Fold this sequence. Notes:
globular, mainly alpha, Rhomboid-like fold, disordered C terminus, 12 helices, about 70% helix
Amino acid sequence: MRINRGVHWVRAYVRGAPGTHVWLGILFVTTVALHHMSPEFEEAFLRQRSTNIHELSSNPVRVLVSSAMWIDGGHWLPYAVLYSLFHAPAERWLGTARWLAVCAAAHVLATLISEGALLWGIRHGVAPASAVNTLDIGVSYALAGVVAVLVYRIPAPWRYGYGFVVLVVYAVPLVTGRTFTDLGHFTSALIGFGCYPLVRARKSVRIPKETAGASAG
Length: 217
């Protein structure tokens, strides 16, 4: 039956990228939780989970993990689309462990570099001292890294066009806005490009057997 085939395909699709969908599930729960908080409590709550300079100096591991479990702005559906377009294909291609390594590298390194740049700005009078408590949560750094690493999945010559577009998308805001988050996004993309050693053994896309069987049926 078509319904059974559809259910079978959905299950195979989710099993092919378990990390992506578990992460999406967590983001859904935390987003719903944010919608039930008052604006004042929400700001204080998120600030404690933010990778700002103050929190990084006292609880680096905790905030690096917790900041990736919340969405600033409270809109989950756009991220569900982006995760389906980029994270899920990357996880099925690289495997969960390597995909997670790309996400962690982009999220952690870009956070440290961007917050380090902000700290330099504070010490040199370019940014206000209050910026040590700037709210910095979300999953966009990891997403930028994964978007960039997917360039190696695309055959030449199309990969060069894709890579150019990725660079433009993240470089233009950095040039025009020059905020620490713009620097973080651009850095994340560069980190994704730099993850080539993780993808050399994953040149071809592996389609789950369940998915192939469902399509053949």
